[in-house]
Each structure stands twice: as structure tokens, then as C-alpha cells.
Write a structure and sequence with these properties.
single chain; mainly beta; two-stranded antiparallel sheet; elongated; 1 helix
Length: 187
């Protein structure tokens, strides 16, 4: 004789089969961290903000706000595919603005222009990963080689505007130097 008793389903939520059908979510966490002390170094992005103005040989001349352009200066990395920006504890920003309220004077046959030395901190970082399933992690492991990030100092600290005579280039030209008074390379 067959019985039509209901099945006891009290083990449905603890079934090994169900656990295999709905695996715990797994993912990889990534972080970019300072490598050691970061080996920080100050560098300067020398950027010409103005068009060059040539004095006429008889009268003084000036380059001012109407010929000066403001630029947004951002961070960069020494590798082509960094994980993203990290300050690594240094007083840096992702971007700063150069501003455009500068005036420089020249006389005689001077050519005059405005340059801005945007102070940056260059520092060393490394990417780290941890593989996690549920609440279990394999721990943080360094991935790849250390690389350097160069980022503008917060609030433009250490930056300097300067008037340049005779060695002007084109508005927007830029180069890197190790000192705030970097000489303008000849074209």
C-alpha cells in the first residue's frame, strides 16, 4: 500500500548539492600602495602660459592676462596602464590649475613671456591584489613591478610663476626640470 505522506524538507537549505549550485561570490580586490617610503622627489613641469610678446626696440612692453591661458595639470604614471591615482600619503592632487592672472614686462628689443613651474612630487608605488571568496581571502600579494606616479602638489605648493626674456617658445610648450628655475631649452 502506497502512502501519500508529505516529504520532510528540513534539510533543503543545508544540502551539499544546493551549496554547489549557488557558490559563494568570489572577487579580486586591488590596491595601489606606496612602495617603502615612496622615494619621493620634487620635479617641475615648466609650462609656457603666454604667447611671446616682442618689444618694438623703443618702448617697454608687457604680456598680461589677455595673452595668458590657464591650464589644468594632471597626474601621470611611468607605466601605460596604472590602476588609478593614489596620493600614497603625499600632499598631492589629481589636478591643479595654473591660473591666468600674470603680467610680465620687457623693454628694448626683449621678447617676453610667462612661464609657470608647476611643482610635482614623484613617488614609487606598487599594485597589490587579494582574492576573496565569501569571508576567506588569500591575503594581499604584490603584482607586477613598482612604478612611479608624478602628481602636482596640493594647492600648487612649491610652484613658481616667472617672467622669461628672450628665450620664449610657443604658448603651451612644456618640459620637465629638477629645479624650479629650469632653463628653457632652445627650439
Amino acid at each position: 500500500m502506497a502512502s501519500a505522506m508529505p516529504l520532510d524538507d528540513h534539510t533543503a537549505d543545508t544540502s551539499p548539492l544546493k551549496a554547489r549550485q549557488f557558490p559563494t561570490p568570489c572577487f579580486t580586490n586591488t590596491q595601489t600602495r606606496k612602495e617603502g617610503d615612496g622615494k619621493p622627489k620634487q620635479k617641475y613641469l615648466q609650462k609656457q602660459l603666454s604667447v611671446p610678446i616682442a618689444c618694438d626696440g623703443k618702448n617697454a612692453c608687457s604680456v598680461g592676462e589677455s595673452q595668458v591661458k590657464s591650464y589644468s595639470i594632471g597626474w601621470s604614471a611611468s607605466i601605460s596602464d596604472p590602476r588609478g591615482f593614489t596620493s600614497a600619503g603625499f600632499s598631492v592632487s589629481e589636478t591643479v590649475e595654473t591660473g591666468s592672472t600674470w603680467t610680465c614686462e620687457g623693454e628694448g628689443s626683449d621678447t617676453v613671456c610667462v612661464w609657470y613651474a608647476v611643482a610635482h612630487t614623484e613617488y614609487e608605488v606598487r599594485d597589490w591584489e587579494a582574492y576573496t571568496c565569501g569571508s576567506v581571502s588569500d591575503g594581499w600579494k604584490a603584482t607586477g613591478e613598482a612604478y612611479r606616479i608624478t602628481a602636482p602638489n596640493s594647492d600648487n605648493r612649491g610652484s613658481l610663476k616667472r617672467c622669461v626674456l628672450k628665450t620664449c617658445r610657443d604658448q603651451g610648450d612644456e618640459y620637465w626640470s629638477d629645479d624650479v628655475y629650469g632653463t628653457v631649452p632652445s627650439k
